[in-house]
Amino acid sequence: MLKKRAINIALLGIGTIGSGVVRALLLKAKTLTRQAGSPLALKLVVEKDIARHGSQGLEKSIFTIDYREAIFSSDVDIVVELIGGEYPAYDYIKEALNNGKHVVTANKEVMAKHGAELLSIARKNHVALRFEASVGGGIPLISPFQRDLVANDIQAIYAILNGTTNYILTRMAHDGLDFNVALKQAQKLGYAEANPANDIGGLDTAYKLAILTSLGFDMIVNFDDVYYEGIAKLRSRDFRYANELGYAIKLLAIAKRSDKKVETRVHPVFMPAESLLAKVDGVYNAIYVTGDLVGNVLFYGEGAGPSATSSAVIADVINIAQNINNKQDNAPHLIPQKISGILPMEDIVTRYYFRMNVLDRAGVLAKIAEVMGNHGISISSVIQKESDPHTRTAEIVIMTHPATEKAVQEAMKVIYRLKVVKEISNFIRVEAI
Amino acid sequence: MLKKRAINIALLGIGTIGSGVVRALLLKAKTLTRQAGSPLALKLVVEKDIARHGSQGLEKSIFTIDYREAIFSSDVDIVVELIGGEYPAYDYIKEALNNGKHVVTANKEVMAKHGAELLSIARKNHVALRFEASVGGGIPLISPFQRDLVANDIQAIYAILNGTTNYILTRMAHDGLDFNVALKQAQKLGYAEANPANDIGGLDTAYKLAILTSLGFDMIVNFDDVYYEGIAKLRSRDFRYANELGYAIKLLAIAKRSDKKVETRVHPVFMPAESLLAKVDGVYNAIYVTGDLVGNVLFYGEGAGPSATSSAVIADVINIAQNINNKQDNAPHLIPQKISGILPMEDIVTRYYFRMNVLDRAGVLAKIAEVMGNHGISISSVIQKESDPHTRTAEIVIMTHPATEKAVQEAMKVIYRLKVVKEISNFIRVEAI
Lengths: 433, 433
Known about the structure:
- Two copies of one chain form a homodimer.
- Chain A is α/β, with parallel strands linked by helices.
- The first copy, chain A, has helices spanning 16-27, 29-36, 67-72, 89-98, 108-124, 142-148, 163-175, 179-188, 197-200, 203-216, 236-245, 306-325, 364-374, 405-417, and strands at residues 7-12, 40-46, 63-64, 78-81, 102-105, 129-130, 154-160, 219-220, 227-228, 247-258, 261-272, 284-291, 295-302, 338-339, 349-359, 379-388, 393-400, 403-404, 421-430.
- Chain A contains 14 helices and 19 strands.
- In chain A, β16 and β17 (393-400) form a beta hairpin.
- In chain A, α4 (89-98) packs parallel to α5, α7 crosses α8 and α13 runs antiparallel to α14 (405-417).
- β13 of chain A pairs antiparallel with β13 (295-302) of chain B, so a sheet runs across the interface.
């Protein structure tokens, strides 16, 4: 093989993930050179925090606080954006692409909100925009949609995309912990941030779902149309009932075809305990995809962490480097063009689990069933137990047959006003995956 | 988008898989055209069996019995080889590549035995040789090694690669069936062929493992060095003991780094019942890969069948078509160069399960343990049960600590000759995956 010139990389941000990428570039230079067809040289690190200049044993001279050095340097081939967050990362990526730099990013927020625009800019400039690390850490999730499953019309995507919440749910399910206790354990182990709002609240998962939906259904997704809920309302008793009924509780990202529209939603679900996805525990992520040809496929692995994420970032860098070395165009092949046709949340149809606190007296269930019936909701099973002799209340769990979200929301308003109902303690959607 | 000329395909073999590919090409023309950037036109079908000419609603005029029409036609861009078996498929692929045709194949035997040579020929001729469908049906397994995991040094691959045997093992495990009964059921349901020798005996899995080992460890694998065993020796009582001890029994393809060599072997294993791979049931396939950066990833799906396989075949066709349309080189990026350093089977180190029929008298276990000790094999646990008062024999199950295959084979020869041992009923290797 001819000796090729080095491919020069500028790194934006040397935090946890950036440090992982640097370590891998330094420690694995030989493997990476063979794969890329030429050495990968870290030319520049843009980092605002001067305390980090010189970190990872790198010479201080390659650090700068000015992103323009990366974007306007004629020496730099690939800009690797690992700052995170929408701004200024979005601006940096856009400027880099417009200045003819290939870009690799792990930025889920930017890709969820501006992916279609940035891919168009990349295409116009004949440069790459790669983002395998933005979803699922090192698990190949972007590439399968772009290459391996392209012959398929995707019917559904069900995914566990947030390790923090999956860890908390696993502890609640297996050890009977309450939400707050499980969250504290996750924080102690470094699986949850000090401010875990984006993870717990479902926003992180929603960003990732927007990206996968756009790829899987070949459409431009308006991020504001992605429905999301978090896991904070779950109680250990919900897990006990789920177990009793043969279900697991997971925070799922769901995208599926529904007539001519696509459902995209993130919320806790009851799912059959026997399904492989329900067995994905701890900080692991997994995505379950149904295609018209391939049937069901599942991809599983560590969804976060500097090492796994650097696997995806560097694979993107290597693929770009291979194309540069083979004088091939790096522009994205196919970018979504259809405008999003996302089904409004109120129109989705699924089954529901309700847990209510009711007065312990005859006829209560009949009253609730009547309200549900009036809204076209039919009950599939009921568990009533644990009367509390002091308060003279009982807990009642109702599983419904499929109903629209709208009907369920309206029925809940009426049920909430029934005198015999003390509290609607929880309601969780059920997926028959 | 400019209207591009059609990409012309010649299909070699219109059996079950070929028919599936044709159906997908015809029914999904619109999706595939958008993905490929131009229409995919089936120009020619080479099929020796004249009864199949005109099948799938195709005009008889595009059928021929002469493969040279496909290989020498200046009209044909891509040859899709779905004949199967080593010859004449190997010759056809080689001739096609040498005549400047891109080739897509699902042929595991040819790729296992001649992959490195054919990839070199493809590279020399600047044409593609793609074989995603040769392993794991529609599950992306080749592409991850070629693209997504390239930054990793692969440490281990554990895979379930044969749906027939996994179906049989699942029935034996869950329903307590005997091997022959489970096999007959599999044949009835179309999951096993009338002559199931290649599946049952492990050869099919060994072909696929050779391909994955070559990709994962970036080396030329001499197929004769791949050790394989089948599942016919398993008995329902082995599954009962496995269950009692917390294990599942699977036919695993294993490739892992062992000092400077690589182990490649296919045989039934005891594996922890709690591992995700142990939960892959029925005709599904899965591959579990450990890389130094990515950690553990798992890919799961239908490993066979015309629909799933056509997903992989057509993805390969589309990727080639995209490159043709973008005037990009289709030659394989990287082909293995290192000569195989496969660890001889006798040098592997693992734990073992033994099931023996012994005389029901004191001191028998001591005798067996003494022989094992003499060979450096230490026992981790023993189950003794089910004395048969008529024959005055008992069944004894021994789990060992790690030992070399060589020591175990030699110890077995000695144990076999002990008068107190009536039979060594089975021995199965244990993997702590």
